[in-house]
Amino acid sequence: MGKRKLVLEDGTVFHGEAIGSEKDVFGEVVFNTGMTGYQEIISDPSYCDQIITFTYPLIGNYGINRDDFETIHPAAAGVIVRESCDVPSNFRSEETLDEFLKTKDIPGIQGVDTRKLTRIIRKHGTMKGMMVSDQVSDEEVMDRLKNTALPRDQVKRVSTVKPYVVPGRGYRIVLVDYGMKHGILREFTRRNCHVTVVPYNTTGEEILQLKPDGVMLSNGPGNPKDVPEAIEMLQTVMGQVPVFGICLGHQLIALASGANTSKLKFGHRGSNHPVKDIRTGKVWMTSQNHGYAVDEESVGKTDLEVTQYALNDGTVEGLEHKTYSVFSVQYHPESSPGPEDSNSLFDEFLDRIKKHQEQGGFPCQNAQTSTKS
After folding, report:
1. Do 3-146 and 154-358 share a fold?
2. Which of 126, 154, 282, 361 is placed for a possible disulfide with 221 were both Cys, Cβ 3.0 to 4.6 Å?
3. What span, in angstroms and rounded, lies between the C-alpha atoms of 373 and 103?
4. d(Cα 285, Cα 360) in Å, to the nearest integer?
5. Do the beta carbons of residue 203 and residue 243 sit within 8 Å?
6. Which residues are annotated as a binding site for L-glutamine?
7. CA 109 to CA 100: how far, in whole Å?
8. Name one GO biological process term (predicted).
9. Where along the chain do its domains lie?
């Protein structure tokens, strides 16, 4: 294996061995605390342009299989591990982590002190970084880091280009793809829903022309304020049909309702984040991957109310509209990877659709009044 180094924008340098693709890569360095699920994590489109640090020391020990991908074409910029396992042991394993990264043209580095790296990110926040050959000078890398901005078009690059249908005989769901994980489709097909997946920039009028029973907003990468098309769409759709948003979709609902979002210091990325529902008092363990959050103070000026909080840091994890059939969560109820505590939220969404139809399927109260400020 060749030598490779990771250079952070604060000047910190980590040396290690190259795995995966041979190309140099630039991105935002983040960390994920999950002990398992590395295949789902790397293939999660929400990691677009990010270099993922795995805090668990041994990655690749059960290999890569054909079933656990969350997208066909991973968008992660790179992977950082303490040790990459070359001899995986699992009956489903079909290739090693290194082979998979080479196939998908994703560079990686092993032999890094990931505990030290994680502590740096926790102290100073996520930051830009580059993985390059050891032959490249630190000065050259630092110059590139200072003069290169992180992209802001991640959603456009990971969203589907054209609409497509996953047939079913149940409720008709329009799923807006902002970087959708396949686990969301799996949950709807398990419930026999007829799902139409549409691009991120589909207008509200185009969605309503599809006569959906409900609209689902997917997860996705980047800053929600970089997707103004979604906010305009929601201001047309909310109040017409039930809406359910997760992760980025949750943040977009907040923005469309007049609330604000801001960047977290180092984000929530892992599969063991406790969330409390203030209506029931129940605590769920959740799978999370986001770098932005809804500002609680701004919610009080809207028609939304907070329904759930993160127990680790008190950030907003759930919202519900006071008038319309609209609700959202910041985490991933499709649980890929992670605990299945919150999987019932998909059933709650379908129950809301049923109730809406029992009431005649008409627009909600005040639906003809625009939510635009």
Report:
1. no
2. 154
3. 48
4. 36
5. no
6. 46, 220, 222, 248, 251, 289, 291-292
7. 14
8. 'de novo' pyrimidine nucleobase biosynthetic process
9. 3-146, 154-358
* pLDDT at position 361: 79
Q: What pLDDT does 237 receive?
A: 98
User: Please, which contacts does 254-258 make with residues 24 or more away whose CB atoms are closer than 8 Å?
Assistant: 254/224, 254/294, 254/298, 254/299, 254/302, 254/304, 254/319, 254/328, 255/224, 255/225, 255/231, 256/230, 256/231, 256/371, 257/302, 257/303, 257/304, 257/321, 257/371, 258/298, 258/301, 258/302, 258/371, 258/373
The CA-based angle 282-286-288, given to 5 degrees, is: 140
Q: Residues at the annotated binding site?
A: 46, 220, 222, 248, 251, 289, 291-292
- pLDDT, tens only, 55-101: 999 999 999 999 999 999 999 999 999 999 999 999 999 999 999 99
Which has the closest alpha carbon to 187: 197, 195, 179?
Answer: 195
Residue 285's pLDDT is 96
What is the identity of the amino acid at 198?
V
71, amino acid identity: T
The token duo for 85 is 């396992």
> Mind telling me the catalytic residues?
247, 332, 334
What residue has token string 């398992």? Answer: 36
State pLDDT tens for residues 154-175.
Answer: 999 999 999 999 999 999 999 9
Tokens at 292, concatenated? 């932005």
According to CATH, the topology of domain 3-146 is Glucose Oxidase; domain 1 (3.50.30)
What pTM does this model have?
0.95
| CATH architecture of structural domain 154-358 | 3-Layer(aba) Sandwich (3.40)
Q: Are 158 and 75 in contact (CB under 8 A)?
A: yes
